[in-house]
């Protein structure tokens, strides 16, 4: 694993990823598109970031590599292995992107040059950025292809000769080439069919255990999040509205938005029937927000919800010792998913 120059004792760093108070402004918007995000991931841990389309999941995960849209302004801290990504030098940022942290994107075909062999694609970064001899880089690429369930023969293939599922395995191997401490997977399995998706999710969990990687798994699919993650962050309109262990949060959500998302998720054990959809739309970025962003769509909302933004606080009686937190004035009224099954 890579150890940042500024941190002498890696064991003193509690989280591989530690985001605190991240705010992100984009040109032409009336409020921050990310509004005070706190999120952490430890080594060997899988953390899911879930929420509806447009809630800010991709912007959060891209901020970790400082891949911000043009004209964006950011404040807060985004520490990876102890170093703040938002303020690090260009040289440290390059080292971060080619080593400490790696991103697996949703669409492998869009992220890979169809005219170059898989082997060249896999080894390029190590050869160019770390001056690794070609032979050694080839050997590492071959080993990683085996680790992701392919054979070293794939090194000589072109992207067009591989299926979508095989290509996503290549993308995962590519992400692991630099021995990252942190892996970011943004809807990495969404484009795959259900069987391949399950295989790739299992593979990611195996690799996380084997390499003790911290994994941030971004998805709009709550079923997948429940399968793969230790902890979950639920995002709405650029804010974290609820977080907790996957078990506690899915068994007894305390935010009406999490409850509504769960009710809108197909469950294998639920009786057949119409799925509940969440009425209404998320707030427009061109409008300022007062109060709770979910209030206009919330069945529990009262006057205070329209007037005051709820502070994030620990859920009382959380068996997880305080990891379950919620930002809702009326979390005690939320009954949990069972009533919606
Ligand atoms: N480059 C950009 N320029 C302007 N607005 C952007 C840009 N990228 C994202 N946004 C806006 O920021 C908000 C959050 O976007 P983001 O892509 O992070 O959402 P998401 O949760 O990943 O959604 P999805 O599930 O659809 O991928 C959205 O309202 C989106 O329109
Ligand atoms: Mg996204």
How is this structure best described in words?
The protein has 341 residues and is α/β, with parallel strands linked by helices. The model is unreliable at 1-7, 270-274 and 337-341 (pLDDT under 50). Helices cover 30% and strands 19% of the residues. Helix 3 crosses helix 4 (134-147) and helix 4 (134-147) packs across helix 5. The protein has one domain: Rossmann fold.
CATH topology: Rossmann fold
Helical fraction = 25-40%
Given helix and strand content, the structural type is alpha/beta
Query: How many E-type strands?
Result: 12
Q: How are the strands of the largest sheet arranged?
A: 6-7-8-3-9-10-12-11
Number of helices: 10
CATH superfamily: P-loop containing nucleotide triphosphate hydrolases
Query: What's the structural domain tally?
Result: 1
**Proportion of beta-strand residues:** 15-25%
The outline comes out as globular
Distance between the termini: 44 Å
Q: What is Rg?
A: 21 Å
Quickly give the CATH architecture.
3-Layer(aba) Sandwich
- Average pLDDT for all residues: 88
Can I get a quick summary?
This protein is of the alpha/beta class and 341 residues long. The chain has helices at 57-63, 90-100, 118-129, 134-147, 164-176, 194-211, 222-228, 246-251, 256-263, 303-307, and strands at residues 17-25, 34-41, 46-50, 73-80, 83-84, 101-104, 182-186, 214-219, 231-236, 239-245, 313-314, 325-326. It has a single domain (13-112, 179-340), classed as 3-Layer(aba) Sandwich (Rossmann fold).
């Amino acid at each position: 694993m890579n150890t940042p120059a500024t941190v002498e004792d890696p064991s003193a760093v509690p989280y591989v990823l530690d985001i605190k108070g991240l705010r992100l402004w984009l040109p032409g918007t009336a409020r921050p598109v990310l509004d005070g995000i706190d999120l952490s991931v430890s080594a060997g841990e899988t953390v899911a970031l879930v929420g509806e389309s447009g809630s800010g999941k991709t912007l959060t995960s891209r901020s970790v590599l400082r891949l911000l849209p043009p004209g964006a302004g950011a404040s807060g801290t985004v520490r990876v292995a102890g170093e703040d990504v938002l303020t690090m030098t260009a040289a440290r940022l390059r080292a971060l992107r080619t080593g400490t942290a790696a991103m697996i994107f949703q669409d492998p075909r869009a992220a890979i040059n169809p005219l170059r062999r898989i082997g060249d694609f896999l080894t390029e970064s190590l050869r160019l950025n770390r001056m690794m001899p070609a032979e050694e880089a080839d050997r590492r690429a071959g080993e990683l292809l085996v680790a992701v369930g392919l054979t070293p023969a794939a090194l000589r293939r072109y992207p067009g000769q591989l299926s979508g599922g095989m290509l996503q395995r290549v993308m995962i191997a590519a992400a692991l080439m630099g021995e990252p401490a942190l892996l970011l997977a943004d809807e990495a399995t969404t484009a795959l069919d259900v069987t391949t998706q399950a295989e790739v999710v299992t593979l990611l969990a195996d690799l996380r255990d084997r390499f003790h990687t911290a994994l941030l798994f971004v998805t709009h699919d709550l079923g997948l999040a429940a399968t793969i993650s230790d902890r979950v962050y639920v995002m709405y309109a650029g804010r974290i509205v609820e977080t907790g262990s996957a078990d506690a949060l899915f068994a007894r959500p305390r935010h009406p938005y999490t409850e509504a998302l769960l009710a809108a998720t197909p469950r294998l054990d639920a009786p057949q029937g119409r799925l509940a959809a969440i009425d209404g739309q998320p707030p427009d970025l061109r409008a300022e927000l007062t109060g709770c962003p979910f209030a206009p769509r919330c069945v529990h909302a009262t006057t205070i919800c329209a007037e005051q933004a709820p502070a994030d606080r620990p859920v009382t009686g959380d068996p997880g010792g305080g990891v379950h937190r919620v930002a809702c004035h009326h979390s005690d009224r939320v009954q949990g998913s069972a009533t919606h099954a």
